[in-house]
Structures are given as C-alpha cells and as structure tokens.
Specification:
By secondary structure, the chain is an alpha/beta fold. It has one domain (6-198): Flavodoxin domain (Rossmann fold, 3-Layer(aba) Sandwich), CATH 3.40.50. Helices cover 35% and strands 19% of the residues. The protein is built from five helices and six strands; from the N terminus they run E-H-E-H-E-E-H-E-H-E-H. The protein has helices spanning 23-36, 66-75, 92-101, 132-146, 176-198; strands spanning 6-12, 40-46, 78-86, 89-90, 120-127, 155-159. The longest helix has 23 residues, at 176-198. The two termini are 21 Å apart. InterPro entries: Flavoprotein-like_sf, FMN_Rdtase-like_dom. This is NAD(P)H-dependent oxidoreductase. Pfam families: FMN_red.
Amino acid sequence: MTQNPLTAIALNCTLKPAPAASSSDLMANQLLDALAEHDVAGTVVRVVDHDIHPGVEADMGDGDAWPTIRDQIRGADILVFVAPTWLGHMSSEAQRVLERLDAELSETREDGNPLMFGKVAVVGVVGNEDGAHKITADLYQGLNDIGFSIPAQGGTYWNGEAMQGVDYNDLDESPEATIGALKTAAANAAHLARLLKDTAYPA
C-alpha cells in the first residue's frame, strides 16, 4: 500500500464567524491532528466566513465562494466534516455544504465515475443537546450518495448534559471516549484513502 503523504480538508460548519471560539473548530483541529499522525496534512475552512450562495450548482455566479472551497475538496484525499447541533439538527451551514456538494453527482471522471469516488469522508458532531447520532446518519448518507467512502467507525461526537450550557470547547479536557473514537476514525480514514489510491473503484 502506498505510503505517500495524503491531504485533508476539514469543513467547520459552526454558525460562529471567526475569531469566535468554536467547539466545531476544536474538534476539526483534533481530527486533523489525529490524521497528521498518519502522514495526512490538512487545513480547516470555517464555512460561515465565506459567502457560499444557496443552490445545487458547482458555481452559483458572481461572489459565490463555493468554487474555491470545492477546488480544495477536489484536491484532497479526505474530507473532515464537522457540524454543531442546533435544535437536534445539523447547522444550516452544514446543510448548505451538502446541497452544494449535490452538484458533484453530475460531474464524472474519465472512467465515468463521479468525481468524489476514491475520496474518504469522516464526521464529527458537537452539541450540548441530543442529535449527534441523527446528524451523523444524515451526513453519512449524503456524503456516501455524493461518492465519498466512509471508513469503519468513521465518526466521533460529543453531547453535553441535557439542558445545560457547557460546550465542548469549555471542557478542561476532551473526554477519552470522544478522543478514542476520533483517533479510530482518523486511522481508518487514512488507511482507506491509501487503499483507494492504490486500487480505484471499477469504471
């Protein structure tokens, strides 16, 4: 299996513009740190800081920031998708990213497969309310439909105590269970991405 370095892009779908503290940003960076242990270099994009127009096309016209982010996704081997929980659902920024990724279904490579075939995606969810499992399931389904491969145990999450105000980035230390799942997701993502680089899906 190839040992060449891989690349990742982490999409932080917080609703808080920079430089506000963000639990999603913390988890996105933790996932990239874990991927770095497997020779994967990555960067974080805080989606809300970019003017991503609504729609389901690859480019929605003047001022649309999505094409630049799309190029980064297309250039990476691994997509790290981190979403906060609001009212039991993923953020509107996360939903918009999925909607914009829908355009990739109509874009194919020379072998006839969608452009995202051969790319791997992992998921992180944070929130001080229920919803992490549902958001993870929705993201897995959407990303897989678009063509991303999901590795075994390809996600992690943190739910705070119900009806309390503590956020993930308020904790003195991230819980062992969350970090353990995070490290497993990163290791399996790097492993799967290298396998897919060596042996592509059939045309």
